[in-house]
Amino acid sequence: MKQLISKVFIASFILAGSWLPVQAQVPSVGLTPGQSLGAFLDIPSLPNLRDIGGYQNNEGLYVVRGKTYRSNAFNPMNAQELAKLGQLDLKNDYDLRTNAEIAAVPDIISSGVHYTQFNVMADDADVAIPPDQLSILFQDPKRTAEKFGGAQGVVNMFTKSYRGFVSMPSAKKNYRSLFLSLQNPTSSPNVFHCTNGKDRTGWAAASLYALLGVSKEKIYEDYLLSNSYLLPFHQKEIDAFTAKGGDPEILISFFGVKPAYLDAAFDEMNKRYGSIEQYFSKGLGIDAATQKKIRAMYLTSAVSIK
């Protein structure tokens, strides 16, 4: 079912003491870093599908393209969309959602893709409301406002959750497992995702970029791109909610992202660990040697894959 594009290995680079084969011909080559691959490949159900590669770090190196992708959930997916997704030649699908979310909306992926769940919010699963339950809740704006405490209540809920991404035992355990999976050379191309690909996925991408030396400004720019892709995707729900008398900011705060959300995670990380390296080593149990390996795998000087 998958349409596989050819892999052209045009060079090898010595980086951090390791040989790195550089994959040149991948779908995202030529796109702006962070650009929606869902839109580029014409997969409407995946607006937040992106290649994490292309960004330049503070040493002038580039995050490798075609190795790791991020996304919203792979459901719904029809046969045509699966065929287009096949161009990424995915080997692994890392799902950061809870059991209830997966039961309600399971991933629809090709049989050749290995699926693994990393339940980041297992210790606070009630916060991650499955999409089907949210759809029912959003039919009643008054009840929604009461449940979340208005738009500010939604913001408070998300900032608390982002702190939990750093502090919760289940988050530390599963982010550790995710990053150790990503550093396995045989795991790529791979993708990690949650429901909308913005929160659990957003912290995974942001913390990885920080480890790779991407600037804070670029990390936040990339993080906030979720608004460009997700708010139009959910516009009909926002409009219907508003038409029934609901405050649109409640759903905008829910379906989108705010700098305050990511601020909360980085603040929690700095308070507990002091640096991204210490977060990885003390918080996630990923030692300096493995961090170096991750950097070697994900960074390149290759101009051809910028």
UniProtKB/TrEMBL annotation:
UniProt record similarity statement: Belongs to the protein-tyrosine phosphatase family.
Source taxon at top rank: Bacteria
Signal peptide feature range: 1-24
Annotated protein name in UniProt: Protein tyrosine/serine phosphatase
Keyword Cytoplasm annotated: no
One GO molecular-function entry: phosphoprotein phosphatase activity
Keywords of this entry: Signal
